Amino acid sequence: MVGIPRKCLEAKARIFAGRGEWAPFIDILALLIFGGVLFPNVDGLVDLATIDAFLAYHDHKESPVVAMLADLYDTFDQRCEKSSTRIVCCPLALYVWLVSHLFHQEVRHACPLESHRSCTEKGGANWDRLLAYKEGASVNWFPRWKEGRTGVLISCGGFLNVPLMGTRGCISYNLVLSIRQLSYPMRGTPLEEELAPVISRGFNKTNVETLQKVCKAWEVVQKKEKEIRGSNNGPIDGYRKWLNGSQDLPRLLAKAKAMVNTYSAPEVIHRLLGYCQHMIDLMAHIIRNR
Predict the structure, then answer these.
(1) Which has the closest alpha carbon to 221: 159, 147, 146, 177?
(2) Residues 6+ positions from 180 with CB-CB distance below 8 Å
(3) Strand order in the sheet with 169-173
(4) Residue-wise pLDDT tens digits, 213-264
(5) Measured between alpha carbons, how far is 18 from 242 in angstroms, rounded to an integer?
């Protein structure tokens, strides 16, 4: 792995701070935040991909949010394929997102960080049980900080979904499944073509063509507004049946795990649930790549 050790950057930052040279100090501090908080790919090292993301922000004012989202999806996708895979992403951003969507507050803040700070329930929450028993109707899909935005980015270029490029490669984001989060109704069962994944890990020669297509696709983004808006903001029956069919087994397994952890079940039960989780992950992987 090629990059800059964090200890070297920290030492340089101390030198510049001691000299009162604050401009280079701020740049190094920002790079350390990119490598240690936003893109913690390698312990103790700021790798080249993270440096590229920092330079894109520093020199061209490109937001790192897309790359953070891509790394988050890549981590969860690998976690589904291999249950032992580490969750390597920005956990603080994920935590803030969860708090702003899972807890209802009397004051609807315009900033997710304000929602996070004012939420008093998060500290005492049992997250295993909370996530296992949470129903879609109780999720705050549309917090105030999403208001005022028009149109939904549905696809890019020749892709039927939204391909994201992060520090570890490319992965697609199927916005057709999440337009309900933006207060639009879900209309019927999504097409299989719309759910086909685009996954390309690494930046080697074999992925050059895919990477070039993704970069080119972002030059032609396709948004929809009137086509997806309607008077009924609830899921249409076709979508509800499809969603229930795809989520029943994982939901039951999550509830079973929560009960097992609560009542100190024998080790054999834990192993059985682990095997069930492995089979669900395997089925999801086969369906995703068929």
Answers:
(1) 159
(2) 141, 186, 233, 235
(3) 162-165, 169-173, 199-201
(4) 998 999 888 887 766 665 554 555 566 666 555 555 555 556 555 655 655 5
(5) 61
Give the residue from 162, 157, 154, 142 showing the smallest Cα distance to 65. Answer: 162
77/85 Cα distance (integer angstroms): 10
Residue 219 or 145, more confident: 219
Query: Which residue is listed with tokens 């149109």?
Result: 151
Q: Is beta strand 221-224 parallel, antiparallel or unpaired with respect to 199-201? A: unpaired
Contact 253, 280 (CB under 8 A): yes
Token pair 């024998």 in the structure block, residue? 266
Chain centroid offset of residue 282 CA: 21
How do beta strands 199-201 and 169-173 pair?
antiparallel
User: What is the tens place of the pLDDT at every residue in 117-126?
Assistant: 878 777 777 7
Tell me if residue 187 falls in helix, strand or coil: coil
The torsion angles phi and psi of 223, rounded to 5 degrees, stand at -110, 155
Of the candidates 228, 219, 125, the residue with the CA atom closest to the CA atom of residue 175: 228
Q: What is the reported pLDDT for 273?
A: 57
DSSP letter string over 9-23?
A: HHHHHHHHHHHT-HH
> Residues 216, 234: contact at Cβ < 8 Å?
no
34 touches 46 (CB < 8 A):
yes
Distances (CA, A) of 97 to 27, 140, 157, 160, 171: 27, 11, 28, 26, 20
Looking at residue 34, the DSSP 8-state letter turns out to be I
Tokens of 10: 């920290």
The number of C-alpha atoms within 13 Å of 206 and in the hemisphere containing its C-beta is 4
